[in-house]
Design brief:
By secondary structure, the protein is α/β, with parallel strands linked by helices. The chain contains 17 helices and 20 strands. The strands form four sheets. It has a seven-stranded mixed beta sheet. The chain has a six-stranded mixed beta sheet with strand order 6-7-8-9-12-13, with helices on one face. Strand 16, helix 7 and strand 17 form a beta-alpha-beta unit. Helix 1 packs parallel to helix 2. The radius of gyration is 26 Å and the shape is elongated. The termini are far apart.
Length: 557
């Protein structure tokens, strides 16, 4: 007995229930024609993930129910096909003061126009970017159904990270596990995820098919890479990352046990850290702009490493013709900055303009001369330059309908080395979760690779090798006011991402002055980060949903 199972690794749009249903129908029809009789879709595929407070609206749940019925109806004629669809089910009680959830994160099995089995997610994550206990109540049953003599046990994402749900499915007769997922990406997550699923296979003694979502949703990325593990925990099939795919595997019943086999195609390899980060950032830009209907993108090109990296990512994401780069030199801009900026846009073929802010800067200083009389120039004048640039970029955005991509990195966001209503002004923060040392790594990697065929060596070498500078005062360097980036980024990773304390860092060899300064800056600049644009999450803890600290706060770790 052989059953062909297919994973529909699809890129859904939150709230587009008719469009999502059509994707499922089309994938099921194609998979059926290729011999599949079981199709798995990702977690909450009907509505997209994460729908957040849309799930609290009764009309939203009704629209999901209608879409599920549409999928069942349109696939009813495909005899013997079973399609597992993720969707929300149920309602709740809400008032101005009380909310009681009676809603489930459900997987329904559709066959010949009917729901023949269902399963409600048992383990509801409520950490990092997850808020599932806000929207769902845990299930308490098992979901095992039979198709062509093989008994399939359903799990949904977090369930497979714990022992009990898989054991319950096995004890209920399951011979193979089918796991529906919407598991957010961060660097290294694919390998970690597969290792945890190997542990699940070893614990329950069943092979496993992992159906994963792909696509960008606001700040979160889902990388796909759906896979199948045989009974020994070996990967027998793996889909490509960061793009839609149909992944097929064979389930063979042998002496009462199921063996999972690939289809003869080579297993997709896991890439390097830089390669997967690049794909994640490209997908994040492409989907945020595409799903929200932006015509193109605008960014300020400074001749520095951050804006150069964002430009290269944006070109790979949406194409050079949809991007407008603007160089806005000030009296402190070095000649090499505009020379390198012109060089880069020529390499990539990006439309480019230069707008000097010197006259505007002089006008601001003149207008404020009475109020500033007798006071020394300081960061106030530096910030005025950044805010002039932000105003110009936002004006161009308003006029053209293109979104402004901000270019600040995680090291700057952590320490407040950025200007409200200046370089923070914009609609999408591409490298908001990329520390400065990683910025350099990615720039070097991109100059050695051309994954999207948009041009080799896009970033002039001098941009990578020159000391970083905001160029807001004469001979300014980032390290005038910040520790070396290798030190700064290590402190950010351990203190901000991993919750290690000040004294622990000092005990491990960091200078007390550096640790005290960086942790103080992280605390002081919470108010800035609250006003920053949304940006792509690529670490296990970003300055977004992962980070929820009060602005008014006297505690320091």
């Amino acid at each position: 007995m052989t059953l062909q199972i297919c994973v529909a690794q699809l890129n859904f749009v939150v709230g587009d229930m008719p469009g999502n249903a059509r994707k499922i129908i089309d994938a099921a029809t194609q998979a059926y024609a290729q011999g599949a009789r079981l199709l798995l879709t990702p977690e909450l595929s009907i509505c997209g993930y994460a729908a957040e407070d849309l799930l609290l609206r009764p009309a939203f749940i009704d629209a999901c129910d209608d879409a599920l019925k549409t999928v069942a109806h349109e696939l009813a004629g495909l005899k013997g096909l079973h399609v597992v669809v993720g969707h929300p089910e149920g309602g709740g009680l809400r008032s101005r003061s009380v909310a009681v959830t009676r809603r489930h994160n459900r997987a329904s099995v559709l066959s010949e126009g009917r729901v023949v089995a269902c399963y409600d997610k048992r383990e509801l994550p409520n950490y990092q970017v997850f808020d599932e206990r806000r929207y769902f109540t845990p299930g308490d049953g098992v979901g095992v159904f039979e198709i062509e003599g093989i008994r399939v046990g359903l799990l949904i994402c977090e369930d497979a990270w714990f022992d009990e749900p898989a054991r319950l499915a096995r004890d209920a007769g399951a011979q193979v596990l089918a796991v529906l997922n919407a598991s957010p990406f961060h660097a290294g997550k694919s390998a970690e995820r597969e290792q945890r699923m190997r542990e699940r296979v070893a614990d329950c003694g069943l092979p496993l098919v992992y159906a994963h979502l792909v696509g960008g949703q606001d700040e979160v990325i889902f990388e796909g890479r759906s896979f199948a593990l045989d009974g020994a925990g070996q990967v027998v099939a793996r889909a490509a990352g960061f793009r839609e795919a149909l992944l097929a595997v064979q389930a063979q019943l042998r002496d009462g046990r199921v063996a999972l086999l690939g289809t003869g195609q080579a297993v997709e390899a896991l890439p390097s850290t830089e390669a997967e980060l690049w794909d994640a950032l490209v997908l994040g830009v492409r989907d945020y702009l595409g799903k929200n209907g932006f015509k193109g993108a605008i960014l300020g090109l400074s001749g520095g490493i951050d804006s150069a990296l964002v430009l290269a990512i944006a070109v790979d994401a949406i194409g050079a013709d949809k991007i407008h780069a603007v160089m806005m030199p000030s009296p402190y801009t070095a000649d090499i900055s505009w020379i390198d900026s012109r060089d880069m846009v020529k390499r990539l073929g990006v439309p480019y303009d230069e707008i000097s802010i010197a006259p505007l800067f002089d006008g601001f200083k003149q207008a404020l001369s009475g109020q500033f009389a007798g006071l020394q120039e300081d960061t106030t004048e530096e910030n005025i330059q950044a805010r002039i640039r932000g105003t110009l970029l936002m004006a161009l955005s308003n006029k053209t309908g293109a979104i402004v991509l901000t270019t600040g990195n995680k090291s700057e966001m952590a320490t407040g080395y950025c200007t409200l209503y200046g370089d923070m002004a914009g609609g999408f923060a591409v490298i908001k979760d990329v520390v400065k040392t990683r910025v350099f790594d990615l720039a070097r990697w991109r100059n050695q690779h051309d994954p999207y065929g948009t041009g080799s060596q896009p970033i002039p070498e001098r941009i990578i090798t020159r000391p970083p500078s905001a160029e807001l005062r004469p001979d300014q360097k980032d390290q005038d006011s910040l520790p070396a980036y290798e030190v700064l980024d290590a402190i950010i990773e351990r203190y901000m991402e991993n919750d290690e304390g000040v004294e622990a860092l000092i005990a491990d060899g960091f200078e007390r002055a550096d640790v005290e300064k960086v942790t103080r800056l992280i605390k002081l600049n919470e108010y800035k980060r609250r006003q920053a644009p949304v940006g792509i999450r690529v670490t296990h803890r970003s300055f977004g949903k992962d980070w929820r600290y009060p602005m008014t706060n006297k505690f320091r770790a």
